């Protein structure tokens, strides 16, 4: 399996040790051996983006954060490694021109790289034989800096060479997400939230059945729980549903993450926390699971839209049902959009009423037992 | 299965890449050639790690994770001092891999290390050019007298087996060799031409991207390319001394010169040449017509044109690069293992 650790779980040294301990107790002690993909520590990528935009004083903050974690873990070796990486980062960042996308990717790559070095040390402190795998050795991409696409055949060759050596051993490889290398040898990044894409690519190319995306919530929710307190976990989704949700801005997964699963091998994605992996996303879901899964609100400048996402929701019958609900609620809408080939229905609504409508729709669709 | 015990002296980029590929390719080499390379000792400037029965694949991967000059932190196999004699006594190596940095003043520490290896009857593979550039004949003679191998394929054109090919040209007379032999300076020139930036800025970019070293003078002053010419001159039996190679510095090239050259239909390249008839060698900044093959060699690529009495040969390949160089070193190790009949112990 592939296990991706989100940055929200990696805020300080204690967090890295916690994750390492969880990997040992929930996986290794049950004879499950993961390939671990790590994100940068929470907030670091944002700092690095500011740095490449010219706010070079923020290097100090990145340094403080990562050196702080290294000292917290208390390994001399780790402190020296992180020091080396940070001083290289400083040298690059201080000499870069804002317009140089190759160097910008180089700077961004340090967030994940240092996180990986720390994670390996944390795992070792839990008695786990972990080692560093370099994304630049195994994830081969095109040369589109900032939003590169992974070259699956080239990556498969690089990956299998290494996997062949480790697969029967009790080692835990740790690879940094989000970064890759172009065929010209330059470091690339694969877009925000790209660690998901790294994780699903590795799983698909090695034909591993499961990708765990570990985060601080139990899974994908029916809507934003900050707006609707009665939001529930979505247990099952198909790739197209999750992809549609991410395209309408759902937090959680990078849309590109589904590409290797569609094209190469259909690993299942399980999203959640160590407590509970509440959402399973697979290529197909049985017919009885068709219907609305997620309803989300997005405020634009002059209006808001509410997207209802789920296999079958663009069918006429469902559209009618939703419009019936709207009529019953006595609210007006500014527009409706739906295409039969996409698993979504979008309502354009007045901004002042958007939250109210979201709550009522959520209630009708998910709390009062809507059946198609 | 023939076990080959290797000690690695010098543990920077190439050393780490070497440890990694030994870990990843050991099984393949065992299957294909019946040769099992095991690394029994590693040294850097501050310490050593020694394990008589060879580091496991996992240990080799972990060795690559120690900080710079941090081999002495690789417990429980670490030693806080550097003493190659101590290492040899402990592990009895078959092949010595010399990866210390090149020092063209007196060739140390590489020269002494190689001499020590010979004195103990151990074959040598070196990626360090300086001992060869300064003392080629002495080293090769000494190896021959003791029936030992010294191999150095990685010293010229890193990952491209140029030296092996030149050695195999037995009936041809090589009249002249021209080449782009230094990846760093070619990268700098390519940047200047593509981005219209000044030399200093291109150099800075090369340093940031890890193409150039923090102290790039060996590359920019042409010493690295000159050392490669000297090694090639010895290989083809027309030896030239390092001091006799005429060198021009690349740092004098201005963006203005580049623009001028482009207007006239030329590209500026840093070319190393050896004329075997005149026994002359030089490293020069030259204007090359845009249609010339050398004009197409960009970035960190290297290229060599060999003119023989029969015709011309042209080789293009990646210069430098840790992984590429490490593969050449491992190729040399395997070649020695295959050519040494039986196990001398």
Automatic annotation (TrEMBL), chain B:
Q: What class of enzyme is it?
A: oxidoreductase
Give the residues the record marks as binding NADPH. Answer: 129
Active site as annotated: 228
Residues bound to NADP(+) are 10-15
Q: Which InterPro entries match?
A: HDH_cat (IPR001342), HDH_CS (IPR019811), HDH_short (IPR022697), NAD(P)-bd_dom_sf (IPR036291)
Q: Which domain of life is it from?
A: Archaea
Q: Where is the Homoserine dehydrogenase catalytic domain?
A: 162-334
- For this UniProt record, give its keywords in alphabetical order, as a comma-separated list: NADP, Oxidoreductase
Residues annotated as binding L-homoserine: 213
Which residues, if any, are the signal sequence? Answer: none
Q: Name one molecular function that GO assigns to this entry.
A: homoserine dehydrogenase activity
EC code(s) of this entry = 1.1.1.3
Family (UniProt): Belongs to the homoserine dehydrogenase family.
Q: What is this protein called?
A: homoserine dehydrogenase
Record the organism.
Answer: Ignisphaera aggregans
